[in-house]
Amino acid sequence: MAETIIKIDLTKSPYENEMIHNRWHPDIPMVKTVKPGEDFIIECYDWTGGQITNNDNADDVRDVDLSQVHFLSGPVGVEGAEPGDLLVVDILDIGAFQESLWGFNGFFSKKNGGGFLTEHFPEAQKSIWDINGMFTKSRHVPNVEFAGLVHPGLIGCLPSKEMLLEWNKREKELYDTEPDRVPALATLPYADTAHMGKMAPDAAKIAAAEGARTVPPREHGGNCDIKDLSRGSKIYFPVYVKGGGLSVGDLHFSQGDGEITFCGAIEMAGWIHLRVSLIKDGMAKYAIKNPIFKPSPIAPKYDDYLIFEGISVDEYGEQHYLDVHVAYRQACLNAINYLTKFGYSKAQAYAILGCAPVQGHISGVVDIPNACATLWLPTDIFDFDVNPSAEGPTKKVSPGMDVPLSKDK
């Protein structure tokens, strides 16, 4: 029986738990140390630390304090890990707590976080998804049910001091190009809400002022939001500090490629069962700068897809040069508009694309001036036929509650 080396209490604030941190910094002390070959269980808060509740009101999404996130469990040290090694992490199992079988999906207000389609969905909305074994459905998004591919949205190792300084330098330079932008171009260090784990108070105060925020993915892994990192996945992380310093959090019951609503998966609290090993000097041996991984052999089996194309001409008719971001946005918007023909609101359609196991593909990046991106929507998740036909679409969606919206204050 694997030992649970990090435990949490959902009734208490993560700030009360010294095995939790919400910034990246090389001096954050290891909370536990394990040996290569060992397996263990880690418990995790949802990424907001319990700020979002299971109800029909989106005020908590509107008012969420994003300077606090993400709350991560760790860091865990691995005996013998040295800079330049590869830390090999096997995901053996992962799941929700039995006492908390639900998750949430949110669209953040443009004024507080935004999202991939924030110009089209500028105000806060929230859907709640109930977990029933391997399946989920939502009272806010009717006529759809699908199997989850449970995964950690955020997992990675501590950065070195040099890497932390580089992160802060390049992200500040980007931020300074448009400092008044909403949403901001980058999330800079912010000491007031930092939680530095087991660091002594005086050291924590200094480190908090330079600790990197956990929002973006970086060279060490971090918030990559890759839905295929599930049971049976193997991840090879570059090691930058002695011991590696593995941390994990932001568990998702399910997510579409791109996590397009930003709070774009079905976010949940839960546990993850891991095993670790080392490849000595693996970074140089394999020329690895960023993590690489083997996907899960277990995935929801959906074989029939409706595939939406997008090109790098935006919704306002402006031509962009081989811009995959614009192309994928168009594919998503095309899918949303399509689903409204069956009775879904645009918000319900957006939630489906963020939560369901949709696939995103870069389909072409060489045919100037238009890149082509595609969004693959599994048709079997619906309890009606969503394919085009000569008869045309009919309103199939059950009337009732929409995705709750909270107006900006």
Automatic annotation (TrEMBL):
The keyword Hydrolase applies. GO terms for molecular function: formamidase activity. It is an enzyme of class 3 (hydrolase). InterPro entries: FmdA_AmdA, FormamaseFmdA. Keywords: Hydrolase. The keyword Hydrolase applies. Its EC number is 3.5.1.49. SUPFAM superfamilies: Acetamidase/Formamidase-like. NCBIfam families: FormamaseFmdA (NF045496). This is Formamidase. It comes from Cellvibrio fibrivorans.
